[in-house]
Design a protein that fits this description.
Radius of gyration: 25 Å
Strand content: over 45%
Largest sheet: 8 strands, antiparallel, barrel
Strand order of the largest sheet: 2-3-4-5-6-7-8-9
Length: 162
């Protein structure tokens, strides 16, 4: 009489870190010429897709010569493929602090840079993909299942006779 069988159960969500460097182009309201942007995103992603992390970026303007534009540090929160963000930044050209708010998706982002002097919409095309989502954790163990199990021992090493 076989009483034991291998049983796989879901033991809850797992989490992983995903770091991504990227480059892109950013357009601001009223400017036809885009600026370059480089950045880095760090995300903690759970197996259900819940994501939070940080995002840092620096824009470089090419109009009127090469100039460093805006530096930003924001908090990300959302899913692996779409996050909202809010944080702090500084406009190196206009010498003004910013509060950037926006949304991120694979290969694009949009938002507003809010300062005392203006609210400036922006749109970015970039190389960053969605964050990688880990698989859910599962555990396989040998359990007593009563008559009809595939094994005769509690270690699930001795197969039941056919």
């Amino acid at each position: 009489v076989a009483n034991y069988d291998l049983v796989t159960t879901n033991s809850g969500s797992s989490e992983q870190t995903d770091n991504q460097a990227y480059a892109g182009l950013v357009w601001t309201w009223g400017n036809i010429t885009p600026s370059a942007v480089i950045g880095f995103s760090h995300g903690q992603v759970e197996s259900d897709g819940d994501t939070q992390g940080i995002h840092a970026s620096l824009s470089i303007n090419f109009l009127d010569g090469i100039q460093l534009g805006k530096v930003k540090l924001t908090y990300l929160n959302g899913k692996e493929d779409f996050q909202g963000e809010a944080g702090i930044g500084y406009d190196l050209i206009n010498k003004a602090f910013l509060i950037p708010v926006g949304v991120n998706a694979p290969h694009m982002a949009a938002g507003l840079d809010v300062s005392w002097a203006a609210i400036e919409p922006y749109f970015i095309l970039h190389t960053r993909d969605k964050f990688d989502k880990p698989d859910e954790r599962s555990v396989t163990e040998c359990r007593n299942v009563g008559p009809g199990g595939a094994y005769t021992d509690a270690d699930c090493t001795n197969p039941a006779p056919l």
